[in-house]
Write a structure and sequence with these properties.
Elements (H helix, E strand, L loop, with lengths): L7 H9 L7 H14 L3 H9 L4 E4 L5 H6 L8 E5 L2 H10 L4 E4 L5 H4 L5 E7 L8 H8 L3 E11 L20 E2 L2 E10 L11 E9 H6 L8 E2 L8 H33 L3 H36 L2 H17 L1 H18 L22 E2 L1 H7 L10 E4 L12 H11 L3 E5 L10 E6 L2 E5 L10 E5 L11 H4 L3 E6 L5 H4 L3 H15 L2 E4 L2 H11 L4 E3 L6 H4 L10 H9 L2 E6 L8 H10 L3 E6 L16 E3 L8 H5 L4 E4 L5 H5 L3 H9 L3 E4 L3 H4 L5 E3 L2 H14 L3 H13 L2 H4 L14
Parallel strand pairs: 1-2, 1-4, 2-3, 4-5, 7-9, 11-12, 11-15, 12-14, 15-16, 16-17, 17-18, 19-20, 19-22, 20-21, 22-23, 23-24
Antiparallel strand pairs: 5-8, 6-7, 7-8, 10-13, 13-14
Helix pairs in contact: 11-12, 24-27
């Protein structure tokens, strides 16, 4: 073993020579993903919602920190390493992130280094003979907590590892931080694993901060990895039980003391309070009189001729100040007025009228929602509940949101359940427009007489799945993807469990998004219980005028350099055919290749590193057409395999609405059924088909056919297959 392994010289040499050859970047991404996937959801939510800072100590070339951007605000992340070589590379690879060349183990420098709310360290401490002394040192820069990912029970250590972490030596307290979470992960069963053994994910937190979370034992997971828990587990749980009991007791005593204090008010004090109340009532009466006079004056102005004549100018001013907000508010106002004028009578929201015109303006409690909205459920065609699938505000606006929106526009009351694990940041109920309500409240699980949709990709539903979701409701299982580790990662077991529930009779109907999934479903449950509902498109969204949206200079300068643009939007995921993309950039240098979408598991790193390739990251769906309208040809380059064969890509129909030719992989059966779609089975064919697509991109007859296919696959047409499934008693 090399005794110089922890020196700066050693690591400078590693990063400059064989780091990439030994798959260092891939390992960094893998271990960071394992850590993030096994953290408690409440911690991820709090770090994100409270804007807490996180420093990745020992970040190497920044690949692990880039994974953290999928979970936390990138502006709150910092990569730390004492290797100048690695930090220089990290800044080049991820210029949007902050990286600092600092040696935290040099006590002379530590005083001058700023602190962070949380310190994250992945697979670094095992390189030291004295890891907990090292951890004590770096914890000085942590304000609230530590997040660690470590090789666990590594009894046959590799040469660079000097310490083995077990349940016998991992402490429950470190320098004032208490262990609040530990989870052991068997990495040998993970897809594309970079580690054949176990990893342990640990979270240590300041007691004062942790107590403020008001969590319960259900939020704490302490695992040693053995069938019989160790004494340390029991001691940690006991400690948290004592803390919780102390907190409850303290609160109870404070409430008793306050009650006694209130009872001790003298008669004189009561008389004084009564006098104050009388004065307050008189003041309120005066205030109401002033407000009434003001309202009368305002109404007089609004009824005047001058006010009516200047109304177009006021509307125009709103449009100029905020065009996107203007059209969003206008659309929701028109939809609400249409609902009010239905034959069943108006739906009155009383004091919530403002909410129905400005999505997200005010969040409600469940009681408020029930008393002001749900009470009028019989005024709608029915109630559609989208069980927890994905957050509404994820970077890719996907099938669950589209179907929910289409249902709302059709006159159904839509409840879109979220657990706010990623983007939504909601506790309660929020109006999203078009009769859609975003709900994070346990009471929604108890609704009856609704059509409830459960997605095959929704691993978070499994712990909540039970008879209460089924009784008195119609339940559909949306089978939208072949269940595969490349898509679902380590959630496959949960998804298969959910699928078995549905295929064993718990679901009233299986709604499959592709012909291959339809055939599989019919074999399992019979033809009468299976419906085919492919993905679709909101045609109106793509046919608006988007020229008013300002694009970043990076993109506009790129567009100026190339007369022909080949584009793709969607996830940069493991199932893309990256080898073909590399070939295209080399063999078609006259074309500019544009990629829009979030990075899934390091996909952006696999894109070609060429001047004619640009990746702009995830683009919000609300303005995506402003970017994609510059595509001359669009591609869906899935790698041949089961995912390609069974997937109905939503983007196909969105490309149709854009009226641009589409080139797909030949294995994509759900795309190649359209003769207007070009298909390729190799890099050679992709080059040829893209050139053929350029030849027809301006053909008016071809564009008209694409426009027609988009209309035929609009989401409003898609949901007509689902509306007969609502329970009896819902209006149709």
């Amino acid at each position: 073993m090399n005794s110089d392994i922890n020196t700066k010289k050693y690591w400078e040499n590693r990063f400059a020579t064989d780091w990439e050859d030994n798959l260092g970047p891939e390992q960094s991404r893998f271990f960071a993903t394992v850590a993030m996937d096994n953290l408690p959801s409440w911690l991820i939510q709090v770090i994100r919602s409270d804007g807490l800072t996180v420093a990745d100590w020992g970040c190497a070339q920044g690949d692990g920190l880039n994974v953290l951007t999928n979970f936390f605000n990138p502006k709150k992340l910092t990569g730390i390493d004492f290797s100048s070589e690695s930090i220089a590379t990290a800044k080049t690879k991820y210029p949007e992130l902050e990286f600092l060349d600092q040696d935290w183990l040099d006590s002379r420098d530590l005083i001058n280094i700023k602190s962070y709310d949380f310190i994250f360290s992945s697979n670094t401490l095992e390189h030291f003979h004295n890891p907990f002394e090292i951890l004590n040192c770096i914890s000085e820069k942590a304000e609230l907590g530590l997040i660690l990912a470590l090789p666990y029970r590594e009894f046959n250590r590799i040469d660079e590892h000097f310490f083995t972490f077990t349940d016998k030596n991992v402490p429950v307290t470190i320098n004032g931080f208490d262990l609040v979470w530990s989870k052991v992960v068997d990495c040998s069963i993970l897809p594309s694993s970079m580690w054949d053994g176990d990893q342990i994910v640990l979270v240590y937190a300041r007691k004062k901060w942790f107590d403020q979370m008001n969590l319960t034992l259900g939020n704490i997971h302490i695992e040693s990895g053995y069938e019989i828990d160790s004494l340390s587990r029991d001691s940690v749980l006991l400690k948290h039980m004592e803390n919780e009991f102390s907190r409850v007791l303290k609160d109870s005593l404070e409430q008793v003391a306050e009650s006694l204090k209130q009872l001790s008010i003298s008669k004189a004090e009561l008389l004084e309070q009564t006098t104050k109340n009388q004065r307050l009532q008189e003041h309120n009466a005066e205030l109401q009189n002033v407000m009434r006079q003001k309202d009368e004056a305002v109404n007089a102005i609004r009824l005047s001729t001058s006010w009516k004549l200047t109304r177009p100018l006021r509307v125009l001013a709103r449009l100029i100040r905020n065009p996107l907000g203007f059209w969003s508010d206008a659309r929701n106002y028109v939809a609400w007025k249409r609902l009010q004028s239905q034959n069943t009578g108006p739906v009155s929201l009383g004091g919530l009228a403002a909410i129905t015109s400005v999505p997200g303006a005010t969040d409600l409690s469940w009681d408020q929602f029930e008393a002001n909205v749900l009470v009028h459920r019989d005024k709608y065609k029915g109630v559609f509940v989208q069980s927890v699938a994905i957050d509404w505000a994820v970077p890719l606006f996907q099938r669950p949101q589209h179907i929910a929106s289409a249902m709302g526009r059709s006159g159904y009351l839509v409840i879109y359940e979220t657990r706010s694990l990623d983007q939504d940041n909601l506790r309660g109920v929020r109006y999203m427009g078009d009769n859609v309500w975003l709900v994070n409240a346990p009471e929604s699980a108890n609704l009856k007489g609704v059509l409830r949709s459960i997605y095959s990709t929704a691993y978070a539903v499994v712990p909540e799945y039970g008879p209460h979701l089924l009784e008195g409701n119609a339940v559909i299982y949306e089978y939208i993807d072949h269940i595969d580790p490349a898509i679902s990662g380590n959630t496959v077991d949960s998804l298969l469990k959910l699928k078995n529930y549905a295929f064993s009779g718990d679901a009233d109907y299986i709604v499959a998004s592709s012909k291959a999934l339809v055939e599989e479903s019919i074999t399992a449950v019979g033809k009468d219980k299976v419906l085919f509902v492919a993905n679709g498109v909101d045609c109106q969204h793509y046919r608006q005028d988007w020229t008013h949206i300002a694009l970043p200079d990076k993109y506009t300068n790129f567009l100026k350099r190339y007369k022909r643009i080949v584009g793709y939007f969607g996830a940069l995921a493991p199932w893309l055919w990256y080898e073909v993309l590399e070939e295209l950039s080399v063999r078609m240098p006259e074309c500019g290749f544009v990629y829009l979408g979030p990075d899934y598991f390091g996909g952006s790193e696999r894109l070609p590193k060429a001047d004619n390739v640009i990746w702009l990251g995830p683009i919000n769906y609300s303005i995506l057409p402003a970017y994609s309208q510059h595509f001359d040809v669009a591609i869906i380059p899935f790698e041949p395999g089961e995912i390609a064969r069974t997937t109905s890509p939503l983007k196909l129909f969105e490309y149709f609405a854009m009226e641009v030719p589409v080139v797909v992989t030949s294995a994509m059966d759900e795309c190649t059924i359209y003769p207007e779609v070009f298909s390729a089975s190799s890099a050679d064919e992709y080059v040829e088909r893209i050139r053929q697509a350029f030849d027809v991109k301006d053909d008016q007859a071809y564009q008209a056919r694409l426009r027609q296919m988009a209309d035929e696959n609009d989401w409003m047409a898609r949901i007509k297959t689902l509306t007969p499934l609502f329970p009896t008693g819902s209006r149709s």
